[in-house]
Specification:
The chain has about 140 residues and is mostly helical. The protein contains six helices and no strands. The chain is about 70% helix and about 0% strand. The two termini are about 65 Å apart.
Length: about 140
Amino acid sequence: MNENADKYLDELTKKVIKETPLEQPSFNFTASVMSQVAELSSNTVTTYKPLISKKGWIIISIVFLFLILFMLFGIKKESTSWFDSLDLSVLSHNKVTNLLSGFSMPKTLTYAIAFFGLMLCVQIPILKNHFNQRLQD
């Protein structure tokens, strides 16, 4: 019985598809759609906002400056606290630090690392400027 229902539905759909007329778009359909797309694209202007605003950078700079000044001219109190009672000599006197204490870096490698850092600091603004100009064009 299921096969008969499938055959009936198949014949019915074929008949409905044959009898329905083919719809035609209007004469200026493509032009009207493209004009609407042009209007939408001209109305949407992307505004780029930085992740950290100028106010945020000012606050970060003030906090950083405050920390540096506090480390340089901080109040030195003679107080005994739980932190003073910790024995942190374990961190400086162990096998790893003793193993690395005899390691010396050659001057050439030091110069190469310094030159790499300098070139990285120079190239970042240049590349940023290049990509900003490419996005504007």
